[in-house]
Specification:
The chain is built from nine helices and twelve strands. It is of the alpha/beta class and 277 residues long. A hairpin with a 4-residue loop joins strand 6 and strand 7. It is globular and about 65 Å long.
């Protein structure tokens, strides 16, 4: 978020849109991670240390040469640019060449610091990226969308979870997964209905359970999020706990939160009775 949105897209502070600045910022974010791992372990060798990365797996909307080229480039930038150095594989060669990065920012010893052994990998996953041949083409989103216009595509999470062990051999924690969805208050009961969010969580949890059954080590899952959050310039991201923004700051669990609580207790989303209504 710091490097991509702060220095490439300009969506977040400091609001720059510069490819050279992005490349430099991304490297120094990773270098700061490596130095942080080194410092933590020097103070507490038994500490468990990891990193959290965002993943947006890429699919083709059109299977044509231009789309395949764009998809490969986007995949390396969005899904491998940070993972590969952390895994000791350096920066993706294709994207490095296509972006014209001379790698002048990389000093001797940097990549070794960045590749310090980890105890876990945290992943943030919300949606996939559908790539067309041209920027002005808007692909269809067959899975439906969230309130932030992100496609709902649970199968991609399952694919991602099975791909990660081929890239880095550490336990996985799903540190963010969830959806901003519209809410509807049922006045006679005071319950806030958010069936779209509940369905999103259930279908993604099914993918997590399926990956575990296939032997993928997944040590944790954290739903995004427990409350309505502010996401800077992109607006709010409603969560599973309802807040009345009054002087009392009253909070009530939404339908999805009640369902999720039962699902956790039963260790299986499909076994959770839909009794929140």
């Amino acid at each position: 978020m710091v490097a991509n949105h702060g220095y490439l897209t300009g969506e977040h502070a400091p609001g720059h849109s510069s490819l050279p600045e992005f490349l430099a910022a991304a490297h120094h974010v990773l270098l700061a991670h490596g130095l942080g791992v080194e410092r933590i372990r020097s103070v507490q060798p038994s500490a468990e240390v990891g990193i959290v990365l965002n993943f947006t797996p890429v699919d083709l909307a059109d299977d044509v040469p231009a789309a395949r080229y764009r998809a490969r480039l986007r995949d390396e930038i969005e899904n491998e640019w940070y993972l590969h150095p952390v895994a000791g594989r350096g920066y993706p060669a294709f994207a490095t060449e296509e972006l014209g990065w001379a790698q002048a920012e990389i000093l001797p010893g940097d990549l070794e610091l960045i590749a310090a052994p980890l105890d876990f990998l945290g992943i943030n996953y919300y949606t996939r990226s559908l790539v067309t041949a041209f920027d002005d083409q808007e692909p269809a989103k067959p899975g439906g969308v969230t309130a932030m216009d992100w496609e709902v595509h649970p199968a991609t999470l399952g694919r991602l979870l099975r791909w990660l062990p081929t890239q880095i051999e550490v336990p996985v924690l799903i540190t963010e997964n969830g959806a901003a969805m519209p809410d509807q208050e049922r006045t006679e009961t005071g319950i806030v209905l958010d069936e779209d969010r509940r369905s999103y969580l259930e279908r993604h949890l099914r993918e997590v359970h399926s990956a575990i059954a296939d032997g993928v080590r997944i040590d944790g899952y954290f739903a995004w999020s427990s409350s309505t959050t502010s996401n800077g310039p992109t607006g709010t991201g409603p969560g599973s706990a309802w807040s009345r923004w009054t002087t009392t700051q009253e909070r009530r669990p939404k339908h999805s939160a009640r369902w999720y609580s039962t699902a956790i207790a039963n260790n299986g989303p499909w076994s959770a009775p839909d009794s929140a209504l």
